[in-house]
Structures are given as structure tokens and as C-alpha cells.
Amino acid sequence: MPSTEDTPRHTFQKAERLCGRKRIDRLFSSGNRSLAAYPLRAVYILEEREGAPVEVLISVPKRLLKRAVDRNRAKRLIREAYRLNKGLLLPSLGDRRIALAFLWISNQMADFQRVEAKVKNLLQRIAEDLRSEATQRDGGSPNKQRRARSAFPGEGFGMGQTNGGLLYEAVE
């Protein structure tokens, strides 16, 4: 039987939910960061506060999914995918706190495997951004940074790794 200290707890407690109009407005005001992995978009901001290391907001707009049953299912899928994969984000936070919003940007439902893959992708990309920021903040410079550029056709970008409509180039 594995010890509970070695295995991460897959919970989503009330303290991990982002509440309060002022805090939500601050999350969506200037200074935030946004990443997209269709059918989701993640918006996050680092905060100076006490409490849970990550506070999450999940939003599925009525104009995209008309039926309440579909909106509720989409929220359940996102919440479950986050609950199972939040361990990807926690080690890169250190002593910092983050407010994170998952926004549904598709007008169609998706199955759990797709939602979980996209949530995982977003959490890994946020963790990578936080690690590179911590490295730069501490005075060290990482060997390679990744610069995101649009990967739309006709813009003449070279070969590179694409991810969610963005082209990442290695920058020395």
C-alpha cells in the first residue's frame, strides 16, 4: 500500500475556487496572461495573497453552449481534468500564488479525453512560463527561451513546433 505522503491528492476543495467580483475583475484586466488550446482558453495572473496556491474559475458561456445540460457537462469535464492534473502546475509555483480561469471557446461539446489533453497542455505551458519567469527573476537566464508567434498561413514563418495555433521558435 503506497503512503499518502508520496502520492498527490486529487481533490478540488472550496478554497481552490476563485470567488469575488474584484478578484475576478483583476484576473481579466490588463497584466494577465492568456493561452489557448482549443476548445479551452486559460487566463492567469500571479497574486500576492494568502491561501491556496492555485484558485480556479471555470466559465462556459451561454452564447456558445445554449443548453444548460451541455454547459454543466463542459464545466464538470474541465473541473475533473484539472483535479486530476493540477500536480503538473504545483511544483513550478514555489511560494507564489496564481489565479487561473478556464474559458470554454467552442460551440460544440468535446469528450473527456480531448478536454483532459487540452487542460494538461495548458497546465504544462503555464508551468513552463512560471519556471522561465522564476529563472529570469532570480538573475539567471535560461539557455533557450521560447517566443510565441502566430502560425497563420502566409506570414512566412520558418519551420517550428506548432501548438494550439502558435509557432514556437527557439531564441538564443
Would you write up a description of this structure?
- This protein has 172 residues and is an alpha+beta fold.
- 33% of the residues lie in helices and 24% in strands.
- The chain has 4 helices and 7 strands; from the N terminus they run H-E-E-E-H-H-E-H-E-E-E.
- The protein has helices at 21-28, 68-85, 90-93, 112-137; strands at 33-37, 40-47, 54-59, 97-104, 145-150, 161-163, 166-171.
- The chain has a 4-stranded mixed β-sheet, with helices on both faces. A 3-stranded antiparallel β-sheet has the order 5-7-6, with no helix packed on it.
- The longest helix has 26 residues, at 112-137.
- It is globular and about 50 Å long.
- The termini are far apart.
- Residues 144-164 and 166-172 have low confidence and may be disordered.
Widest sheet, order of strands:
1-2-4-3
Instruction: Write down the secondary-structure element order.
Output: HEEEHHEHEEE
Structural class: alpha+beta
Radius of gyration: 17 Å
Query: First CA to last CA: what distance?
Result: 47 Å
Q: Number of helical segments?
A: 4
Low-confidence stretches: 144-164, 166-172
Percent of residues in helices: 25-40%
Q: Strand tally, please? A: 7
Percentage of residues in DSSP E strands: 15-25%
Shape: globular
Mean pLDDT: 81
Main β-sheet: number of strands, strand sense, barrel status? 4 strands, mixed
Keywords for this structure?
33% helix, four-stranded mixed β-sheet, alpha+beta, 172 residues, three-stranded antiparallel β-sheet
